[in-house]
Design brief:
It contains 2 helices and no strands. The chain is mainly alpha-helical. It has one domain.
Length: about 70
């Protein structure tokens, strides 16, 4: 793997990590404002960001599939 590809991959990974943390904080605050109990609030705030990231990465993989 060359240096340019590695740098781009690390940057994308960093952006996805920041997105996940940001989504967690946003969901935690929104669910708190809705008056949700702490346990369901925590479970949803922890489970939804990885699902969103998986959908983004999966959609990218489907749309940018190399042509044969």
């Amino acid at each position: 793997m060359n240096q340019k590809t590695l740098s781009r991959t690390m940057l994308i990974g960093l952006m996805l990590a920041v997105l996940g943390i940001g989504l967690f904080l946003l969901l935690w605050a929104v669910f708190g404002q809705m008056g949700m109990a702490n346990l369901p609030r925590l479970i949803l705030a922890l489970c939804l960001p990885p699902a969103v990231i998986a959908l983004l990465v999966g959609g990218y993989m489907l749309l940018k599939r190399p042509t044969a």
